């Protein structure tokens, strides 16, 4: 176990398991670069460290740039190691977006993992650019009016060698993607949907269930884009037929953050998921 | 005039190229620079060195100054010697990471081509950008001319990486006035620089003994680290002077935290920092020729501020006239307030003369007038050269 028990995560938080699953694959020669986020707190103070690998803490907007320099220094020293940025959705898609895009454009040899809990959870559940439409947060008390920023697509558009989505409910799929990404030279990006019990308003025993239903309803498709080739992975491959996808209400009803949605808004969400799957079908067929 | 060592080469270089040349000789392994006037020609020269293989380093062409400082911070914690350069808005944009690097006490060198801060826009020189970083846990030094910019750049790496210091260093030099002016520069041979700045040995990213770098600190730890930083700053004063002596041995040129000109019998002391110190020297000579015993205190190290040495000089004079190119609005000239603070309890009036903001021309004439007015008790506590 590379990421130890006894850390400061909330009950039901998937982050320690997500980190451990990552480190199981990347091994001891990994450096984590972590911007301000829940993980900053989970890693705790300097009196102990729940991680068996070096961790470089970073200012909110800086992690892709810090990782770029770090990798350059390791190269200069002839040290082979995987540099992993481990960042939340705010640090990735909002305040950190410029440096993320810069590192992607320069094709830096780093693995960037965004654990997306869809709001600023560390500061107490404020909306981010990656909060989905309709979700309650403390700064969208009547539900968010805007859509979620499509981050994996935006990074893929940079033409980087590897982009993937993942879910903690499908650990083998996630680890297979990390394994593939580890050995690719250049910028690799993995976007993990990371449910949050206090922020999403659900019982802490349901984390894996919610992560699973997100995939089954099609809200969170699992795919990878390798050297420009798009491919659905794991059970998402079987969901191109709309009838095989569970209705999105199955996902929404499990969480308090969607409890005030009107039927019309739920319809909007279903419609957008269906439209996304039409796009996914096109992407999938373009490679066959 | 100092003796020119036969082995030194004399060249004509603009300030930006002189600093780039010193950086090349210091052999950093990672550079990250974002273009901003008036630093840009330095970035271009460094890019040329890297592309032609004269400097074996990774040049990270970042998308912002924030990322420039972040990149070299990341490289520095992993053991590389690093460099960046910026100015004005770039320095402000970089500020979060400037403090981040200072807080972790990571050896870094940044050259700052000083420039006024917007708004309104000005690309010309003053010191507002540079002095605004005074609380960021960085050593800050200012060069008077192109030779000093070259020499201080070399010394910066050695000071920053000294095991009793371990603080980032900012080498300031006046935008355009030095960055774009061609002067005579004596450069040291590469092998002399190599022995002066040996390869760096500092590395925080260790896979056999992994640690968290910059984690959350408890209140007890936080204030302890900050106290350690203050102590490192205090130690740095002596080490800067020590490294200056080492540098003198290889170059014949004297450095240190301050420099004093005609100070032995001075009654009217002009204090300054940066490029206009040359003009201040002219002003001092002129009033001396008329029988007024004037002298010059050049402040080279702004942080740590050499309080004790400044005080020792101030206590022997009748009046001090401080030239300031930066203002703490609502308080006054920044350097003047530093000199006043160093002179606390001494019965010596400290006058503040503020000028040169946004590139406004200041000449020896203005300084001469200030000295004459101080002599005839006609100088205000604070005078703006509008």
TrEMBL record, chain A:
Q: What GO terms are given for molecular function?
A: 2-oxobutyrate synthase activity; 2-oxoglutarate synthase activity; pyruvate synthase activity; thiamine pyrophosphate binding
| Keyword 4Fe-4S annotated | no
Q: What is its EC number?
A: 1.2.7.11
Instruction: Report which reactions are catalysed by this protein.
Output: a 2-oxocarboxylate + 2 oxidized [2Fe-2S]-[ferredoxin] + CoA = an acyl-CoA + 2 reduced [2Fe-2S]-[ferredoxin] + CO2 + H(+)
Tell me the superkingdom of the source: Archaea
Q: What class of enzyme is it?
A: oxidoreductase
- Enumerate the spans annotated as Thiamine pyrophosphate enzyme TPP-binding domain: 56-190
- Annotated keywords: Oxidoreductase
**What is the role of the protein in this entry?**
Catalyzes the coenzyme A-dependent oxidative decarboxylation of different 2-oxoacids such as 2-oxoglutarate, pyruvate and 2-oxobutyrate to form their CoA derivatives.
Subunit composition?
Heterodimer composed of an alpha and a beta subunit.
Protein name (record): 2-oxoacid oxidoreductase (ferredoxin)
């Amino acid at each position: 176990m590379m990421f130890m028990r006894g850390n400061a995560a909330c009950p039901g938080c998937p982050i320690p398991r997500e980190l451990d699953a990552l480190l199981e694959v990347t091994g001891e020669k990994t450096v984590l670069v972590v911007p301000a986020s829940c993980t900053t707190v989970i890693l705790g103070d300097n009196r102990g460290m729940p991680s068996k690998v070096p961790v470089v803490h970073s200012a909110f907007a800086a992690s892709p740039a810090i990782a770029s320099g770090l990798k350059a220094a390791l190269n200069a020293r002839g040290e082979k190691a995987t540099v992993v940025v481990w960042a939340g959705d705010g640090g990735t898609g909002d305040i950190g977006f410029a440096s993320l895009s810069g590192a992607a454009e320069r094709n830096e040899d780093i693995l960037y993992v965004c654990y997306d809990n869809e709001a600023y959870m560390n500061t107490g559940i404020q909306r981010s650019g990656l909060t989905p439409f309709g979700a309650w947060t403390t700064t969208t008390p009547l539900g968010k009016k805007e859509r979620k920023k499509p981050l994996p697509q935006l990074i893929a558009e940079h033409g980087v060698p590897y982009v993937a989505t993942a879910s903690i409910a499908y650990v083998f799929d996630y680890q297979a993607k990390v394994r593939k990404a580890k050995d690719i030279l250049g910028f690799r990006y993995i976007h993990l949907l990371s449910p949050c019990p206090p922020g999403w308003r659900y019982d802490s025993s349901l984390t894996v269930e919610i992560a699973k239903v997100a995939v089954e309803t099609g809200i969170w498709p699992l795919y990878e884009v390798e050297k420009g080739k798009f491919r659905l992975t794991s059970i998402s491959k079987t969901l191109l037929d709309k009838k095989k996808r569970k209705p999105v209400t199955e996902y929404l009803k499990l969480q308090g953050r969607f409890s005030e949605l009107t039927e019309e808004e739920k319809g909007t969400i279903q419609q957008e998921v269906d439209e996304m799957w039409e796009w996914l079908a096109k992407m999938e067929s373009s490679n066959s | 005039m100092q003796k020119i060592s036969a082995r030194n080469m004399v060249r004509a270089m603009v300030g930006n190229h002189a600093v780039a040349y010193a950086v090349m000789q210091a052999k950093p392994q990672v550079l990250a620079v974002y273009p901003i006037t008036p630093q840009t020609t330095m970035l271009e020269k460094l890019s040329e060195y890297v592309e032609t293989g004269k400097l074996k380093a990774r040049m990270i062409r970042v998308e912002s100054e924030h990322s420039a400082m972040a990149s070299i911070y990341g490289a520095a914690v992993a053991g590389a010697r690093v460099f960046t350069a910026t100015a004005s808005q770039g320095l402000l944009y970089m500020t979060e990471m400037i403090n981040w690097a200072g807080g972790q006490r990571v050896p870094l060198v940044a050259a700052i081509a000083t420039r006024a801060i917007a708004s309104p826009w000005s690309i010309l020189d003053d010191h507002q950008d540079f002095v605004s970083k005074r609380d960021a846990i960085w050593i800050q030094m200012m060069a008077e001319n192109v030779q000093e910019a070259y020499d201080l750049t070399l010394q910066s790496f050695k000071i920053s990486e000294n095991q009793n210091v371990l603080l980032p260093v900012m080498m300031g030099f006046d935008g355009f006035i030095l960055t774009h002016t061609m002067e005579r520069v004596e450069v040291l041979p590469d092998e002399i620089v190599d022995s002066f700045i040996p390869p760096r040995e500092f590395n925080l990213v260790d896979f056999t003994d992994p640690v968290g770098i910059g984690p959350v600190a408890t209140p007890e730890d936080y204030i302890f680290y900050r106290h350690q930083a203050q102590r490192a700053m205090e130690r740095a004063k002596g080490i800067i002077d020590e490294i200056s002596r080492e540098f003198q041995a290889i170059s014949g040129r004297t450095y240190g935290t301050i420099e004093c000109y005609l100070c032995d019998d001075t009654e009217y002391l002009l204090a300054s920092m940066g490029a206009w110190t040359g003009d201040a020297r002219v002003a001092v000579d002129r009033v001396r020729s008329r029988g007024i015993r004037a002298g010059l205190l050049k402040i080279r190290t702004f942080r740590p501020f050499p309080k004790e040495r400044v005080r020792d000089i101030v206590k022997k004079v009748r009046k001090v006239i401080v030239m300031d190119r930066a203002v703490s609005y609502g308080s006054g000239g920044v350097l003047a307030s530093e000199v006043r603070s160093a002179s606390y309890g001494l019965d010596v009036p400290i006058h503040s003369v503020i000028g040169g903001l946004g590139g406004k021309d200041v000449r020896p004439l203005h300084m001469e007038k200030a000295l004459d007015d101080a002599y005839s008790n006609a100088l205000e506590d604070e005078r703006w050269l509008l």
